[in-house]
Amino acid sequence: MNASTNKRFDVAEYMERMGQNARVVSSQLAGLGQEQKNHALECIARSIETQTGKILKENARDMASAECNNLSPALKDRLYLDEPRLASTVSGCRQVATLPDPVGEMTQPVQQPSGLEIRQMRVPLGVVGIIYESRPNVTVDAAVLCFKSGNACILRGGSEAFNSNMALANCIRKGLIDAGLSTHCIQLIETTDRAAVDCLARMDQHIDIIVPRGGKGLIQHISEHATVPVIKHLDGICHVYIDGDADIQKAIRVAYNAKARRYGICGAMETLLVAESIAPKVLPELCQQYHDKGIEIRGCERSRQLVDGLVPAIDQDWTTEYLDAILSVQIVDGLEQAISHIETYGSGHTDAIITENPESQKDFMRRVDSSSVMINTSTQFADGFEYGLGAEIGISTDKLHVRGPVGLEGLTSQKYIVSSDGLTRD
Amino acid sequence: MNASTNKRFDVAEYMERMGQNARVVSSQLAGLGQEQKNHALECIARSIETQTGKILKENARDMASAECNNLSPALKDRLYLDEPRLASTVSGCRQVATLPDPVGEMTQPVQQPSGLEIRQMRVPLGVVGIIYESRPNVTVDAAVLCFKSGNACILRGGSEAFNSNMALANCIRKGLIDAGLSTHCIQLIETTDRAAVDCLARMDQHIDIIVPRGGKGLIQHISEHATVPVIKHLDGICHVYIDGDADIQKAIRVAYNAKARRYGICGAMETLLVAESIAPKVLPELCQQYHDKGIEIRGCERSRQLVDGLVPAIDQDWTTEYLDAILSVQIVDGLEQAISHIETYGSGHTDAIITENPESQKDFMRRVDSSSVMINTSTQFADGFEYGLGAEIGISTDKLHVRGPVGLEGLTSQKYIVSSDGLTRD
After folding, report:
1. Which of the 8 DSSP states describes residue B289?
2. What are the extents of the domains in chain B?
3. Could you tell me the strand order of the sheet in which A152-156 lies?
4. CB contact residues (below 8 A), chain B span 97-116, against chain A
5. With DSSP H G I counted as helix, E B as strand and the rest as coil, what are the percentages for chain B, rounded to 5?
6. Could you tell me the end-to-end alpha-carbon distance of chain B, in angstroms, rounded to an integer?
7. Given an 8 Å threshold on Cβ–Cβ distance, is A110 in contact with B380?
8. Which uninterrupted H or E stretch holds A54?
9. Residue A186's beta-bridge partner residues?
10. Residue A22, CB-side half-sphere exposure with 13 Å CA sphere
């Protein structure tokens, strides 16, 4: 047996043990009351507060390696922790404690003609696997959401944040012990071996769902290799369509915000569609604003006839999630062509219409098949906190189980409770 | 290029075209109103009624092949169609027309502090693939449920029912044409080539979900090979636990019905658990009843000391879904051991407790992690019609998306509708 076979064998064994631990503890976790869970969240919060110095020291080691490995400034920014960032993670942890506990919620009983009484009870999924990159605070954010929803979790962070994640996981373990709970409730994979990820994604018997959080490459790799169901978030190619019946000032304000507020989030607009009839009234001013902000505009032929200095858009622009200071602009005949453009090139994430016409609002709302359809509203709002979920473990672009921002309820399932006084079936 | 490569290539092309057709028609289907859909269902029902003779003739051809191929009596019974069976399929089709249409349902708007108004709208999944065996009436049952929930569907029946399925699919096509709709709404795979099933299960770009209906072998094959999400129904190893605080007559009545009413359905009890304290009062009488019905009882040691003539149970009995006139019996110390037996050997399908003790009911209900937990009720009730879903495309033993009997709502998803009067994010 060579070294490499030997090593893979160990990882598989290590992961199997971790999966078994999670599965065993999950049925205890499912039975925990709201107060016990909130107490444990407070213990975790305090534990992080107490060990702030230690965490920042470990984060400094990761930052030093990041320097040596020439990580991009954006990645370094995501990796970096300081006191305010840690404090915000701690307050997020306390915030989750204040959220209502979905577990145990029961629907109203419905009496069937047979005499059966049917209810549905909300229960945890069981064991959640989270695979993420760079941002070490996800270790805490994701763990507390899984915990509050009664799920055991297994976390796998990026190797660049290894020391920070280990320090945070130590705090979480200490918090769980302080609360009198098993440390198996929240486990961190303590190896950077990539084989561990594939093991996790294929342990159907122990893992109920995988949530990959990170770049497209990671998510695609997991989706292709997983046998465990995956809550996916693929592209966010978000559109804003300015209809012929739009209020001009509203249109300019919303379309500017949808692109310019932040470029790097999945709800940022990537393509602006403008009805031909209104284009002369909105595009010149809007393009000036984008230009002043330093945004590169790639326009279709019609838009380039209307506004000077646009880069010619090529086919690839309609299918690119720039996540950057670049915007593609297409002038369309009207609503039909806008909907068909979104159907052809969109990613089903978040798409908006700006119009005062209620019929066009309704048509767009019905026919655009995206996880969020927005009316006279900036796409930058696509976020679990803004939707009132209280927290968010990610945004799902899948249609199954959960779609759009995923909060506590997305980490639960339901079971039927069927009661009677000794009913038998004929 | 040899003949076999050539053939596979054709199947792939054929399936790709079918998938494309379904995807294109699905957005039209999503926009159909309730009345249009119900009218089409009536056209399909009439079309089947009109062509009853033709369908029965084609079914007779399948029955003749079944005879030649020595199919089991159970399989032949499932394959067989006569006028009453067809009439019941037709009335099922009309019954689905009377069900409320879940598509377009909107949740109450919730106002967020920012001013955003958040709603959720129910939408079809898109394209559903159904893979089934022997029973030709599934061609109609499954098709009309997909259609009513606004989904395009692609059906793949068993080769033994090929002629019956073709005849039924012709009726459906005629019904769709009579209603002025595209025949792509409901398509039947018209080849018995097995490669078609694998193509279907891997066409992520065109198919949103696969529902395999049939034996365990079929479902496992699909689950392992599919990249499209699958609504699975694996084992139905259902338990009835007679608690020490059970009403004796109720216990005997329910436990008898749970096994003896029908053996071959997934909700049939396979293992009876009895608390030691009550066993002498229920087991002898119950075993006599099972014996009179011709049911073989495989008992644990304690039960064999109590009742004469039981076959000794071996380990494998606790994990076997007999679907037959066989029952395994285990005497347990009490509730804890019963729950732990179900946790170890159960399949998460349907499990019942018989007890008058409200605390034991609550404990069992909370801790048994099955799609249906039943209290003083026969497990034979595990069925979408009995739960008031109006119809059922299958029973899901998955925890994701939909759990337990799957009706129209299980074939839909939701999207967020976010409105404001020009809100931008700070």
Report:
1. H
2. 3-232+405-417, 238-386
3. A186-188, A152-156, A127-132, A209-213
4. 104, 110, 112, 114, 116
5. 45, 20, 35
6. 62
7. no
8. helix A52-68
9. A153
10. 32
Which listed CATH number (3.40.605.10, 3.80.30.20, 3.40.630.10, 3.40.50.1240) goes with B3-232+405-417? 3.40.605.10
Predicted confidence (pLDDT) at residue A2 exceeds the cutoff of 50: no
Hunting for tokens 């009876």 — which residue is that? Answer: B272
> Could you tell me if A350 and A386 are in contact, meaning their C-beta atoms sit under 8 angstroms apart?
no
Instruction: Locate B354 and state its tokens.
Output: 């018989």
Q: To which residue do tokens 């989270």 refer? A: A130
Task: Read off the tokens for B344.
Answer: 């170890």
Contact A123, A30 (CB under 8 A): yes
Torsion A174-A175-A178-A182 (CA) sign = negative
**Chain A contact for B388 (CB, 8 A cutoff):** yes
Q: What is the DSSP letter of B263?
A: S
Contact in structure between B275 and B338 (CB atoms under 8 Å): yes
CA A221/CA A347 separation, integer angstroms: 18
The answer to whether the CB of A382 falls within 8 A of the CB of A349 is yes
For A307-416, where are the alpha helices, taking DSSP H only? 335-345, 358-367
Residues A28-42 pLDDT 10s: 999 899 999 999 999
Tokens at B109, concatenated: 């708007």
Q: How far apart are CA B46 and CA A261, in angstroms?
A: 58
φ/ψ of residue A76, rounded to 5:
-65, -40
Tokens of A38: 């909130």
Cβ contact A282:A274 at 8 Å: yes
pLDDT of residue B119: 97
Coil, helix or strand for A371? coil
Span of A66-70, B16-20, B232-236, B296-300 with lowest mean pLDDT: B232-236
Amino acid type, B415:
K
Contact A114, B386 (CB under 8 A): yes
DSSP B393: S
Shortest distance, CA A53 to any CA of chain B (angstroms):
32
ipTM exceeds 0.85? yes
Chain A nearest C-alpha distance from B402 (Å)? 7
List the CATH code of the domain at B238-386.
3.40.309.10
Is A55 an 8 Å CB contact of chain B? no
What residues contact B84, with CB distance under 8 A and at least 6 apart?
A: none
Question: Which CATH topology does A11-232+405-417 take?
Answer: Aldehyde Dehydrogenase; Chain A, domain 1 (3.40.605)
What digits encode the pLDDT tens for the residues A196-235?
999 999 998 899 999 998 888 888 888 888 888 888 877 8
Q: How far is A59 from chain B (nearest CA, A)?
A: 30
A271 touches chain B (CB under 8 A): no
Residues 6 or more apart from A27 whose CB is under 8 A from it?
B343, B367, B369
Residue of chain B minimizing CA distance to A267: B425
Tokens of residue A33, six digits: 């009351």
Q: Which of A134, A115, A103 shows the shortest CA–CA distance to A35?
A: A103
Nearest to B259 by CA among B312, B329, B327, B307: B327
B415–A373 C-beta distance less than 8 A: yes
Q: Which residues, 6+ apart, have CB-to-CB distance to A202 below 8 Å?
A: A225, A226, A227, A228
Nearest CB partner across the interface for B422, out of A114, A253, A382: A253
Q: How far is B419 from chain A (nearest CA, A)?
A: 5
Q: Which residues fall within 8 angstroms of residue A207, CB to CB, at 6 or more apart? A: A19, A22, A127, A128, A129, A154, A200, A201, A228
Query: For testing the chain A interface, which of B206, B350, B425 should be mutated: the one with the most A CBs within 10 Å?
Result: B425
